[in-house]
Amino acid sequence: MTAPVAQAPERIAMTAPVGQASAPGGWVIRFFLPASIASAEAAPVPEDGRVTIATIPGERVAVLRYAGVPNAEAATAARARLLAALAAGPWQAEGEAFDWFYDPPWTLPPLRRNEAAVRVSRRPGA
């Protein structure tokens, strides 16, 4: 991960959250661009051909915020707590849970903001 992301002549600070989800053959990492970049065409051009700029339509997600170092064990536990909390309410998970991370690696663990997230829809009849 790099910070800041640069675009000539404008510099763009590192954005948050950074989304991470497993995918076949690796990971999908999402960086959210600031609102000042109004379209994919206005975004910086990636230097690596494996990086793509995409406009993602709005979506409704449920999140569970947690602190600490977001290692695999902590992230898995947070996703499980999120899905368990949804099981008893009016919202149902749509697809796999994923992770959002907000802080650079040097942030003290108790001050880190991490979120387990999942797309949701209203439960029928709720």
Describe the structure.
This protein has a single domain (5-122), classed as Multidrug-efflux Transporter 1 Regulator Bmrr, Chain A (Alpha-Beta Barrel), CATH 3.20.80. The longest helix is centred in the middle third of the chain and has 16 residues, at 72-87. Helix content is 13%, strand content 30%. The protein has one helix at residues 72-87, and strands at residues 5-6, 11-12, 18-23, 26-31, 61-66, 91-93, 98-101, 114-122. It is of the alpha+beta class. Strands 3, 4, 5, 6, 7 and 8 form a six-stranded antiparallel beta sheet that branches. Strands 1-2 form a two-stranded antiparallel sheet. InterPro entries: Reg_factor_effector_dom_sf, SOUL_heme-bd. This is SOUL heme-binding protein.
End-to-end gap: 41 Å
Helix content: 10-25%
Beta-strand percentage?
A: 25-35%
CATH top-level class: Alpha Beta
CATH architecture: Alpha-Beta Barrel
Rg, rounded, reads: 16 Å
Taken in chain order, the helices and strands follow as EEEEEHEEE
Major sheet size, sense and barrel closure = 6 strands, antiparallel
Distinct helical segment count = 1
What is the gist of this entry?
This protein is α+β, with helices and mostly antiparallel strands.
